[in-house]
């Protein structure tokens, strides 16, 4: 036989249940339209409450359509329009509920929704630890927090600390980007996402990757660490990247790399920054420039490297400041400062530049190297130009003039145009032996080389020349004024470009001031 009591006797119902409950931890019934109890059907100590059921337990209030209350076990099972209110701020909804009064655990199932201030969590399976105020799901869930929508297979929400922890297939959707991660912690007030595993942030502007750090979704700033990179118009990498999306600035600490694929250039260093809006970049601390060619790479080191965009964003000036040294298998050199202009693929070297090309040493006040199809095409030696090559031990072929242009084919100089005050000393060969020493002077000179040896000289305007036996020429006359063999300063590999050796004082034989180097350099710096 089933007993039925009308809900018009709420006080009677309260007294009925209070008599069976002991202590503050017991679940309290506040209201129900109907109460049913039948030991044969429902079991011992089970009471069924139907219609507008209301419970309270400590700081929580619970509502449902139907509930099964297990008095001795201090638990209940409920179905229909589940609604739990915790501390008047957190609201939890669902279709089914298992609640354990002794532990404060609420298992909510089907169409689950948790609302706490501006946070809404939805899932099909949610466990809520009411005592510790922790909600967690393990079969896909979604949290909406203003502009951010976060989904994952597993998740924990901590209302006390306003944080959520996500695990497995994490996706954060924002109007400006989408974030994909394995593990993520998110603060619902500050809107900061802590990166705790491999994470991609994809937007129209770029793709960001990091394995630790944080992303402030409210202010669009980030700290990216562990294999971090920002891949947009150029690729920026580093151990630690401070990234400001609004201003497009990435500041990098340790192992910075900036890849300019359009110009086949990589800039590296242990500190630097990149502005993706203006495409300006700067790096210091073991700064390294790598110019990548089809069959080789030029490695260049300086105290500071700077990339400056031109009117066409694809074109740039790359500037190297102080103690510049570079190495490529067929060419090495050093100077104080260098500029690479991507418009005509020209490298300009300033302030005591020295270039070694195979067996040749080239010096001038300024050297310009031109490339064509990624190989050296010609080189200009501007003011106090001097080319030296060692014929054999102690004997040097020498060409000197105000300015020169060397033409290159297959990485070897095959013709040299000397413009102004041309002088030369070279050793004509008969098979393997020098047959004498030739000294010549004129205003202009064209020198042809074959297999790195002088094969012909065209002298123009007031030429003078003399061929003499080597033994009859004093040693001091076998050197043109300003001669200095600088092989010991030549980088032998790419590691040596990081070791700087100071040059000795060199008397180059002319008044340096007439070439106005200071003016040239100030233009370069600007």
Automatic annotation (TrEMBL):
Alphabetically, which GO biological process terms does the record hold? Answer: lipopolysaccharide transport
Under the heading Gene3D superfamilies, the entry gives: Lipopolysaccharide (LPS) transport protein A like domain (2.60.450.10)
Residues of the signal peptide: 1-22
State the superkingdom. Answer: Bacteria
Q: InterPro entries, per this entry? A: LPS_export_LptA, OstA-like_N
Identify the residues that the record assigns to the Organic solvent tolerance-like N-terminal domain, covering every copy.
Answer: 25-182, 207-284
List the GO cellular component terms.
Answer: cell outer membrane; outer membrane-bounded periplasmic space
The UniProt entry, under Pfam families, shows:
OstA_2
Q: Which UniProt keywords apply?
A: Signal
Q: Which GO terms describe its molecular function?
A: glycolipid transfer activity
**Name by which UniProt lists this protein:** Organic solvent tolerance protein OstA
